[in-house]
Write a sequence for this structure.
């Protein structure tokens, strides 16, 4: 028994390290690029509406497809193929270097927009499969420790990526070609680690997955409470009334002109605020309960109010306030889903919730993009406030049984 336990621990630590470095390089690539997508699209001639739609479609497919990819991976046991495909498609980021040279139907930004959406699809394909594989290979040391280290590597990559991109932009006088091409190096390192991990971990993942008994399908319709449905609708309204981060960075690119490296550093700052806000809001949620959800709903109007100032101070305040809201969303929004749904349907509940969450951002990117293109700044603020009032009203109905 002791030898078996030691072997499980060895496999667990090997899995943690390998998947940790896979996530590290993955985050360097897509988090590094994400901060300059808006100025790059603007450089290629895209309007605020185009940037908003691209960001919104990306969020929608990125969250919505997770339900389908997770289900297929479970049903077909095709976890490793989804990992290979999901990470392999990150080649879309280095390929952005060439996007401006190959206009589609005479539109310079169209290929770049498609590649940005492909990156979001890639994340949707790999995330459920990767998390499943990590969970089944780390029982020897505990899934909490495994996912904690995994999140640490994620955050490390989210810091290194924007710093790398900002540095290359600064040193090359805002040359997007060299900047995106630089991200080919972490991509090659990522692919190498996946090919190293696969033969070492697959025998153990196959064995662990084979030991699981498939649970009987359950009828889900009656399992979702009215509180969950109302809460999900409230979150849909909340994201619809929250200006998309790519639009904030789009305005930043206009404000700071040719200094695109500043926009990359602003995205780095956003990540830092997000990282601080998430655990604090999680702690407050545990103490206060679902009433604390009112805080991010109310704060969601601030990014719009600040960004319409269209000056450096307004951009910085918009980035900070959006980072606070995002950190709250990433922690307590998902916690509320767990509180409102029974365990047997929670996976499906998260799939539905993520899809609706992404749909809200799709509408947000489109609507606020139109406001910015037509300089309807006052209307943008009024829209955000009114939608958040509706969202808060729905939220109050969902938390009413707890009061």
């Amino acid at each position: 028994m002791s030898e078996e336990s030691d072997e499980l621990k060895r496999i667990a630590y090997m899995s943690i390290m390998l998947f940790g470095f896979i996530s590290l390089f993955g985050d360097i690539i897509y988090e590094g690029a994400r901060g300059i997508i808006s100025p790059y699209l603007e450089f290629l001639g895209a309007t605020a509406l185009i940037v908003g739609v691209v960001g919104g479609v990306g969020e929608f497919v990125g969250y919505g497809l997770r339900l389908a990819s997770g289900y297929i991976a479970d049903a077909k046991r095709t976890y490793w193929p989804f990992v290979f495909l999901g990470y392999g498609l990150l080649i879309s980021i280095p390929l952005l270097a060439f996007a401006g040279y190959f206009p589609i139907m005479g539109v310079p930004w169209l290929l770049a927009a498609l590649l940005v959406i492909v990156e979001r699809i890639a994340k949707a394909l790999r995330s459920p499969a990767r998390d499943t594989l990590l969970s089944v290979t780390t029982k020897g040391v505990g899934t909490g420790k495994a996912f904690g280290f995994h999140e640490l590597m994620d955050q490390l990559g989210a810091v290194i990526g924007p710093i790398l991109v900002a540095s290359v932009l600064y040193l090359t006088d805002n040359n997007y070609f060299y900047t995106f091409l630089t991200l080919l190096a972490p991509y090659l390192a990522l692919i190498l680690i996946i090919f190293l991990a696969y033969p070492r971990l697959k025998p153990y993942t196959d064995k662990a997955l084979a030991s699981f008994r498939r649970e009987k399908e359950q009828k889900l319709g009656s399992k979702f409470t009215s509180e969950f449905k109302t809460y999900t609708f409230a979150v849909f309204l909340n994201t619809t009334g929250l200006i998309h981060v790519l639009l904030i960075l789009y305005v930043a690119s206009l404000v700071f002109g040719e200094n695109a490296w500043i926009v990359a550093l602003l995205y780095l700052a956003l990540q830092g605020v997000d990282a601080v806000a998430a655990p604090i809001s999680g702690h407050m949620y545990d103490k206060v309960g679902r009433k604390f959800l009112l805080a991010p709903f109310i704060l969601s109007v601030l990014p719009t109010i600040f960004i319409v100032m269209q000056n450096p101070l307004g951009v910085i305040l918009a980035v900070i306030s959006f980072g606070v809201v995002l950190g709250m969303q990433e922690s307590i929004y998902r916690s509320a889903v767990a509180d409102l749904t029974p365990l047997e349907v929670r996976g499906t509940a998260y799939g539905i919730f993520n899809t609706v969450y992404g749909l809200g951002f799709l509408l947000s990117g489109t609507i606020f993009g139109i406001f910015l293109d037509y300089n309807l700044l006052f209307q943008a603020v009024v829209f955000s406030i009114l939608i958040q009032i509706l969202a808060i009203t729905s939220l109050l109905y969902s938390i009413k049984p707890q009061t």
Q: What stands out?
A: The chain has two domains: 1-211, 221-403.
